[in-house]
Fold this protein.
Amino acid sequence: MDCPNCGVYNPEDRDHCWRCGTELPKQVERKRRDPQASARTWLYVAVGVMVLVTLLRMCGVSVPGMGGAPDATGCAPQLRSVAQLAAAFAGFC
Ligand SMILES: [Zn+2]
């Protein structure tokens, strides 16, 4: 950010201008949550739920709301391998 007093550039993490010593205004925007990070978190949650549902289906548990009978062959191969890896890792089933 630029110093409001002398206009020189200052790194974002500085709270005083390196040149004139003027206190720099606080970066309020940086404190706000990053919307992209929030979207990524939801993506992780969605993937986690999908893996969990797949694990449950592999164990023969019918998941309410998913519809249809448990059918492991209907899942995407990469998702099944991830689920199998997670199952082996956690000692699930
Ligand atoms: Zn300055």
Notes: The mean pLDDT is 79. Residues 3, 5-6, 8, 17, 19-20, 22 surround zinc ion (CB under 6 Å). The first helix runs from residue 28 to 31.
